[in-house]
Amino acid sequence: MAKQSPVVGRYVTIDVDGCEYKVFYLRNGSGVPLVCQHTAGCHNHQWMGLLEDPDITANYDVIAYDLARHGKSDPPHNREWWKEEYLLTAEHFMNFITAFCEALELDRPIFMGSSFGGNVALQLALHHPDKFRAVIPVEAAEHAPGFFLDLWRHPHANAAQVCGSGVWDLMAPQSPEQDRWQTWHYYTQGAEVFKGDLHFYSIDHDMRGQLGNIDTRRCPVIMMTGTYDYLTPPEATEATARQIPGGIYIEMEDIGHFPMSENYPLFAVYLKEALRIIESKS
Amino acid sequence: MVMSVRDWATRFSEASDRDQTIGAMAKYFTCTYLWDMGTAKVIVEMIDGKVYRINVDPAPMDAYDFALRASPQTWREFARPIPAPMFHGIWSASFRRDLKIEGNTLALMQNLRNFTVQFELLRKVGVPV
């Protein structure tokens, strides 16, 4: 008898700012929808540990999508996208997420993302607090400059290896070797979009001076960062959470910038605490 | 007791040349780099994935593609079996600690995968400072 995963993949077509996107998503579970955004230059397989976790999927409808241009989600079908540089903006990113959630008719999902997915979670809490039950920004901060770099897709270097190895030490050395190399492998697949994603991450995402306007009574914010994240170090996330009235910060020991794929069992310990806090506020 | 730089060079060469991960992907791993550890400096010359030579007493005019410079304390932290946060790689240390990456960084990027694996051999081999 073959070992079958309970995770199911499907496509949905959405319109975002005039772009027609055919979006691939993975889904498993029932209960409160928990929508998951992968990191920049990656895809939804980063969330496979969560998608297959029976402790979570017993009570949560876990949905992990590939952002357009990532994984199995194509660039827009109705545009000559190859004639313009891909530079992701906060507005388009948020419009994509809200359109996706509306297309699936999700009732105020919890939104969780890591890295640039964490940063957009903060944006959603500020701009769309009534559309989400709560947000869990992972490895996020109010501002994350310094990573929008030409080296990610320099034609004289092997961009796949540069992207995979350039983020290698965003992971903790004690995370399981199999999982770290799996995460590295994911990163070799997104080299063409990584830099454009980082336009949002390091340039367009700048919430300095705006965090006090997040209303956590409407949309609770639970931030989590690993101690081995050099890009958004724990002190940056903690400083961000402190500026959000009612914002909560959880520090994750012995893990890095890709907690959901580099060491899911350890990440799950912290995630369950975040979900418990959200339940207590609902 | 700090090992001599010559002993370190022998151990590092052997560890690199028999590393299975480097062996699997390093056919074109060719570059020359300087590691400046403060009280010790070495120039490692890689050709087609093998350590061709380690210059343990570099002269000012000896050439290399790129250099990594940091304090002896930082190099010792790199060499712990499980380094503390921010000492666990060249990017974390250059963002958050005193590591400087200089020279032709394109050469570093062209060889980044194998160089990264090789750098982490320090956790097994140690450092001569």
From TrEMBL, chain A:
UniProt superkingdom: Bacteria
Coiled-coil blocks: none
Residue span, AB hydrolase-1 domain: 33-152
Keywords, comma-separated and alphabetical: Hydrolase
InterPro entries: AB_hydrolase_1, AB_hydrolase_fold, AB_hydrolase_sf
Pfam families the UniProt entry points to: Abhydrolase_1
GO terms, molecular function: hydrolase activity
PANTHER family named among the record's database cross-references: MONOACYLGLYCEROL LIPASE (PTHR43798)
Protein name: Alpha/beta hydrolase
Organism encoding this protein: Hoeflea algicola
TrEMBL record, chain B:
InterPro entries with a match to the protein in the record: SCP2_sterol-bd_dom_sf
Protein's name in the database: SCP2 domain-containing protein
